[in-house]
């Protein structure tokens, strides 16, 4: 063990710390000033205009509908979720509120919990695509704010939703 320590110390003592490290002095050469140096290649990187993303995606709705007693985001609503998530990813100052809603069936407590799960499902999907947690807030209104009045399947289907709103 002591032999290993001596070898390590010997290796450290051979490094001179007082001497400055050699520095290579390079000056840029000018192209075309009597110099035959090749012109540097142009960058293939394109500039991005972040101002172009200042408005939400056009043509997308702001409502994600759910099946009865479910909080799974259906594939047909993925373009809405992805579109707004990419918009938020490109515009870090923007924020959105995700409101979860249910139909009138079920107890008040159950519907508040289901509405929260629906809002959080949309939120998690948006986080995976580019939005950040600080940009999104998920809240539940349960059955308290129906979009359509009625007690039939057509009305219930319109009330089982999550709405994306600007904050």
* Overall mean confidence score, pLDDT: 82
Provide the succession of SSEs: HEHEHEHE
Strand content: 5-15%
Q: How far is it from the N-terminal to the C-terminal residue, by CA?
A: 66 Å
CATH architecture of the domain at 64-166: 2-Layer Sandwich
Helix content percent band? 25-40%
Radius of gyration (Å): 30 Å
Structural features, described:
By secondary structure, the protein is α+β, with helices and mostly antiparallel strands. The chain has a domain at 64-166: OmpA-like domain (60s Ribosomal Protein L30, Chain: A), CATH 3.30.1330.60. It is 32% helix and 13% strand. The protein is built from 4 helices and 4 strands, in the order αβαβαβαβ. It has helices spanning 2-13, 78-90, 108-129, 153-159, and strands at residues 63-65, 96-101, 136-142, 161-166. A 4-stranded mixed sheet has the order 1-4-2-3. The chain is elongated.
Give the arrangement of secondary structure elements:
Layout: H1 2-13, E1 63-65, H2 78-90, E2 96-101, H3 108-129, E3 136-142, H4 153-159, E4 161-166
Parallel strand pairs: 2-3
Antiparallel strand pairs: 1-4, 2-4
Helix pairs in contact: 2-3
Features of the shown structure:
elongated; 60s Ribosomal Protein L30, Chain: A; 167 residues; four-stranded mixed β-sheet; 4 helices; alpha+beta
Care to give the gist of this entry?
By secondary structure, the protein is α+β, with helices and mostly antiparallel strands. 32% of the residues lie in helices and 13% in strands. β2, α3 and β3 form a beta-alpha-beta unit.
């Amino acid at each position: 063990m002591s032999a290993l320590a001596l070898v390590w110390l010997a290796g450290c003592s051979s490094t001179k710390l007082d001497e400055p490290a050699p520095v290579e002095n390079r000056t840029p050469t000018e192209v075309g000033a009597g110099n035959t140096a090749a012109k540097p290649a142009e960058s293939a990187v394109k500039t991005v205009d972040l101002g172009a993303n200042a408005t939400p995606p056009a043509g997308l709705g702001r409502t994600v509908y759910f099946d009865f007693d479910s909080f799974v985001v259906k594939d047909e609503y993925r373009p809405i979720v992805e579109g707004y998530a990419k918009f938020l990813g490109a515009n870090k100052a923007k924020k959105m509120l995700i409101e979860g809603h249910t139909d009138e069936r079920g107890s008040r407590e159950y519907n508040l919990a289901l509405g929260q799960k629906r809002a959080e499902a949309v939120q998690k999907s948006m986080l995976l695509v580019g939005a950040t947690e600080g940009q999104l807030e998920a809240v539940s209104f349960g059955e308290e704010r129906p979009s359509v009045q009625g007690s039939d399947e057509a009305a219930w289907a319109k009330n089982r939703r999550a709405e994306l709103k600007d904050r």
